[in-house]
Amino acid sequence: MSVTTLEVPSKNNAAAVSPATATGDVAQTTQTSAQLEARLPAQAGDAAQPDHTPLQSLVETDARCGIQNYGRLPIAFARGAGARLWDVAGREYLDFLGGIAVVTVGHAHPAVTQAVSAQAATLLHSANLYYIEPQVKLAQKLHHLSGGMRAFFCNSGAEANEAALKLARKYIQSKHGAGRFEIVTALKSFHGRTYGSLAATGQPQYHKGFEPMPPGFSYVPLNDIAALQAAVTERTAAIMLEPILGESGVLPCDDAYLQAARELCDRHGLVLILDEVQSGMGRTGKFFASEWPGGRADLEKMRKGLGNGVPDGAKLATDDDETSIAPGNHGCTFGGNFLSCAAALATLQVIEDEKLMQNATEIGGYFRERLMHWGETTKLAQELRGRGLIIGVELNQPIARDLMQAALQNGLVFNAVGDGILRFLPPLCITRADVDEAMDKLANAERGMMNDE
Ligand SMILES: Cc1ncc(COP(=O)(O)O)c(C=O)c1O
Questions:
Q1: CATH topology of domain 110-353
Q2: Alpha-carbon distances of 326 from 173, 237, 323, 337, rounded to whole Å
């Protein structure tokens, strides 16, 4: 199979997107909050609660005043510490989702709190017309961690991807002329919601209703080296991949596939763009997931965990790619501001001081062992995927969302990707005791569900 044109599933071919491939966020957002609320079993003690709880009030006001683009679960968190969260009713949860891979070093980490508070009390914003000390320091830190790449800062993963797409095209066109612009990406990938990053996203359900997509993107099945080779033509500018596809249920690129992509880019003079928005920041046990197969990107993007919850995004470029960019070609008002860079510097320091990459490897290994054992004894799991603390469990029954909601009732937070996959992205500071507790809660949730049937 070579290049694949995306086909939007119609009512008649809706089965083209299987439960295993439908992403958690899409699947969840196709339901209204009210529908989701109806699915969540009543909380113990609900009957004793007054008519209008803080949660009900939030749900009602949001329904009236907020655009309903999220299918929210009926829970509002109010406070966090480490890997713990408390909701507005004071119930405690163990957080094995980390705000979808955002909370790298744990909630309300004192070092990050201190850095953010001190910076907020000093200076929040000037402009990128001037030098910004924390931004320069952060660039230096990332330069070191990435083996010499240069940084551009923004606020989100989608913006980092936009910057990478623009830079890749500019670089290739400055070398080869305007005929090379096409970006090859993977089916099932997720790169963001802006038009460029959405066009790069190889999932038709995200495009539906927003067409036409910007031209110049083609899609290949993941881990099919022959298809990737066939997709590269004289019009190709870049190959863009997530080393581990997070939103689609933790689908790793094979090491050989990433190496083949690198070789193809070297051979044809293309740019290799790696999107580590979800898999970076030490989550797999190395700073970038692509380091495992020895991969080297030309453009590397990261966001989620960079500021431990403070919006922050970075696109890193090799010296070579960077040469085509001139002042005025690209920018971002809030990118690299004092606050986000102070948060990111503190977060990176905590990762180093508390050896959280080693912890991700060690505790991630232990967690996978426990999940594997759970999967075997319950006979529910058919595959376990991931590295370090980005873990997906593919179930052999379509109960992922029910199990996620039952686990929430038991005080454990994780996420379901469609009906088929459980996704775990906990803060990197979790301990063995946290894993044991999470497994108890998961087992209780599963037993409770089975007993209810
Ligand atoms: C791999 C990947 N790229 C890009 C994005 C988009 O990031 P943001 O929501 O910050 O724009 C995400 C978000 O989940 C992601 O997982």
A1: Aspartate Aminotransferase; domain 2 (3.40.640)
A2: 14, 19, 8, 20
E strand or H helix that includes residue 203: none
What integer pLDDT is reported at residue 35 of this predicted model?
Answer: 54
User: In the chain, what percentage of residues exceed pLDDT 90?
Assistant: 81
Architecture of domain 32-70+73-105+356-452: Alpha-Beta Complex (3.90)
CA of 249 to the centre of ligand 1 (A): 14
Q: Where are the domains of the chain?
A: 32-70+73-105+356-452, 110-353
Edge-first strand order for the sheet with 421-424 is 381-387, 390-395, 421-424, 415-417
Name the residue with tokens 């290739």.
172
Please give the sequence-ordered ranges of beta strands (E in DSSP) within 88-144, or none if there are none.
92-95
| Residue list, ligand 1 pocket, CB within 6 Å | 156-158, 161, 190-192, 242, 246-247, 275, 277-278, 303
**C-alpha–C-alpha distance, residues 296 and 300, integer Å:** 9
pLDDT tens per residue across span 389-448? 999 999 999 999 999 999 999 999 999 999 999 999 999 999 999 999 999 999 999 999
Question: Ligand 1 centre and the CA of 366: distance in Å?
Answer: 27
pLDDT recorded at residue 301: 82
Q: Which one, of 243, 310, 236, lies nearest residue 269 by Cα?
A: 236
Q: Is 153 a catalytic residue?
A: no
CA end-to-end span of the chain, whole Å?
43
Active site residue 275: yes
